[in-house]
Structure to design on (149 residues):
């Protein structure tokens, strides 16, 4: 993709969105952004890591899923699951162990996840579906053992 200016000629395009069925898939971390969660009824204001995960099915279809990891004690389980999955902390790390999560080092790492489908209503009142990460799967092989995507 390339940016273009207001007066430039550009190619037309349709929205490209692939919804994968619930199940286990390989992924690689395609993008990392730092963000801020303003707070909600369930979670107070906190920083968040936003990872874009490129998820690929065995039939060749693929989609990108954004995963927010909230830097809050109540969400530490999912952060731990993610870093174990991509091999940046040992899979046998016990609960209660103090670690400094290597946020920036996750770029390009691979892993396996369990994907689900979330239903929601858009601003236009239409029901929509999108994929969401249900669980990061603990690796059965050493990090990088899933091959290339």
């Amino acid at each position: 993709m390339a940016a273009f200016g207001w007066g430039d000629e550009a190619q037309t395009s349709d929205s490209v969105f692939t919804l994968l069925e619930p199940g286990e898939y390989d992924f690689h971390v395609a993008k990392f952004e730092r963000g801020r969660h303003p707070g909600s009824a369930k979670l107070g204001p906190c920083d968040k890591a936003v990872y874009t995960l490129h998820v690929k099915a065995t039939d060749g279809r693929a989609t990108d899923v954004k995963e927010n990891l909230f830097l809050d004690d109540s969400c530490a389980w999912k952060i731990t699951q993610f870093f174990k999955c991509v091999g940046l902390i040992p899979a046998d790390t016990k609960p209660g162990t103090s670690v400094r999560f290597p946020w920036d080092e996750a770029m390009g790492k691979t892993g396996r996840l369990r994907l689900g489908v979330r239903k929601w209503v858009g601003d236009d009142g239409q029901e929509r579906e999108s994929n969401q990460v249900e669980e990061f799967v603990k690796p059965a092989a050493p990090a990088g053992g899933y091959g290339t995507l």
